[in-house]
Design goal:
By secondary structure, the protein is α+β, with helices and mostly antiparallel strands. About 25% of the residues lie in helices and about 25% in strands. The protein has helices at about 5-15, 30-40, 50-55; strands at about 1-5, 15-20, 25, 60, 65, 70-75, 80.
Length: about 90
């Protein structure tokens, strides 16, 4: 699975993109938990940690908005992680 990071979450994890193998049944919640586990601390001093940012992020799976963290993802999918850009 390809994971692409944008804006503050990219700064927090320190990469714009990565490829991560997934198991048979992996949910978007599992993907977010894996990100927090792989990147427990922010890559830069002036940004929040992934753990702080991920709960308010939006996610796209193959370019379509993922409504709910129970969505299943596979090795062939691309997941975009989008932080809040402005406002509430």
């Amino acid at each position: 699975m390809k994971i692409r990071y944008f804006a503050s979450i990219a700064a927090s994890v320190g990469v714009d993109e990565e490829t991560v193998p997934v198991g048979e049944t992996v949910t978007l919640a599992d993907v977010a938990a894996g990100i927090a586990e792989r990147y427990p601390n922010a890559a830069a001093d002036n940004v929040k940690s992934p753990r702080e940012l991920l709960p308010s992020c939006s996610y796209l799976i193959n370019g379509k908005a993922a409504r709910g963290m129970e969505k299943i993802v596979t090795d062939e999918d691309t997941v975009d992680v989008l932080p809040r850009f402005a406002g509430g």
